[in-house]
């Protein structure tokens, strides 16, 4: 396992496990993190609608932890400007999630979900040969 694999697996294990995580490659682990964040945002939205403050706080807290894991897995040396831009975007997402939690704001949760979907879509579009070269 290379450095990216180790970082991705470590971050994934910190924010929650999923069946198949141990056999997933780093690319798949990041997709799993995106999917986990989106799932928890959806649950948090439902919790806000039900006025379930405890569950809302827990789920938004988990999304913040996932985004933190995504930030921690960035390789700023090799990733250059793209990694720096993602770091800034993840920082923005975390601040917006705190605000959504504070204000029970469904629109902010939708905004963050849309941002995650965009990054996920770009991540999934990375060609297989590029992924394999990165996994070295």
UniProtKB/TrEMBL annotation:
<keyword id="KW-0282">Flagellum</keyword>
<keyword id="KW-0963">Cytoplasm</keyword>
<keyword id="KW-0969">Cilium</keyword>
<keyword id="KW-1005">Bacterial flagellum biogenesis</keyword>
<dbReference type="InterPro" id="IPR008207">
    <property type="entry name" value="Sig_transdc_His_kin_Hpt_dom"/>
</dbReference>
<dbReference type="GO" id="GO:0000160">
    <property type="term" value="P:phosphorelay signal transduction system"/>
</dbReference>
<feature type="domain" description="HPt">
    <location>
        <begin position="22"/>
        <end position="123"/>
    </location>
</feature>
<comment type="similarity">
    <text>Belongs to the FliS family.</text>
</comment>
<dbReference type="Pfam" id="PF02561">
    <property type="entry name" value="FliS"/>
</dbReference>
<protein>
    <recommendedName>
        <fullName>Flagellar secretion chaperone FliS</fullName>
    </recommendedName>
</protein>
<keyword id="KW-0143">Chaperone</keyword>
<dbReference type="InterPro" id="IPR036584">
    <property type="entry name" value="FliS_sf"/>
</dbReference>
<dbReference type="GO" id="GO:0044780">
    <property type="term" value="P:bacterial-type flagellum assembly"/>
</dbReference>
<dbReference type="GO" id="GO:0071973">
    <property type="term" value="P:bacterial-type flagellum-dependent cell motility"/>
</dbReference>
<keyword id="KW-0966">Cell projection</keyword>
<dbReference type="GO" id="GO:0005829">
    <property type="term" value="C:cytosol"/>
</dbReference>
<dbReference type="InterPro" id="IPR003713">
    <property type="entry name" value="FliS"/>
</dbReference>
């Amino acid at each position: 396992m290379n450095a990216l694999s180790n970082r991705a697996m470590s971050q994934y294990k910190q924010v929650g496990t999923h069946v198949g995580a141990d056999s997933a490659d780093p690319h798949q682990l990041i997709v799993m993190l995106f999917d986990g964040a989106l799932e928890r945002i959806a649950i948090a939205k439902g919790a806000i609608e039900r006025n379930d403050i405890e569950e809302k706080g827990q789920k938004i807290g988990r999304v913040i932890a996932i985004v933190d894991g995504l930030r921690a897995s960035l390789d700023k040396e090799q990733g250059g400007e793209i990694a720096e831009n993602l770091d800034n975007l993840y920082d923005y997402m975390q601040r917006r999630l705190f605000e959504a939690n504070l204000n029970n704001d469904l629109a902010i949760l939708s905004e963050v979900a849309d941002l995650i979907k965009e990054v996920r879509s770009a991540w999934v579009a990375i060609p297989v040969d590029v992924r394999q070269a990165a996994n070295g």
